[in-house]
């Protein structure tokens, strides 16, 4: 069974930039999974620092309106991995999931950590590169010209254990 993980599509991240393209792709993939009755699991990150845009109880910690209406199952987390000290592994086991698809935010943190953690737990993992986004930039990392999403996608692809696709490839292979 395949399941879609929609990671940290929250106001505090999404409203920090123009993520229209990423949100459109994420929504399309959610609709694909819903049409065929495959599980869609939303992951929501919380921070305990009041200054964080994802502070528990803040408006920024809420799911973004573009996806909120789809969220029937939400797993809460406090670290980059959606598996660490959460109910995700048990939920996936209960649903008999053996293949997870990764979408959401931030590419180089929560999406990447979750993809690696899923692989470590024996899941087949498909990382849909252009259906992830990040609030960070090349300036954040003091690496002029760095394309964060492409870099993470390349590293995961080179691992030869995580399938990395763009949306068009996902449609071709899985839809």
Automatic annotation (TrEMBL):
Output one GO MF annotation: hydrolase activity
Q: Which CDD domains match?
A: nicotinamidase_related (cd01014)
Pfam families this protein is in? Isochorismatase
Q: Which UniProt keywords apply?
A: Hydrolase
The Isochorismatase-like domain covers 3-143
Q: What is the similarity comment for this entry?
A: Belongs to the isochorismatase family.
Which PANTHER family does this entry report, sorted A to Z? Answer: ISOCHORISMATASE-LIKE DOMAIN-CONTAINING PROTEIN, PEROXYUREIDOACRYLATE/UREIDOACRYLATE AMIDOHYDROLASE-RELATED
The protein, known as = Isochorismatase
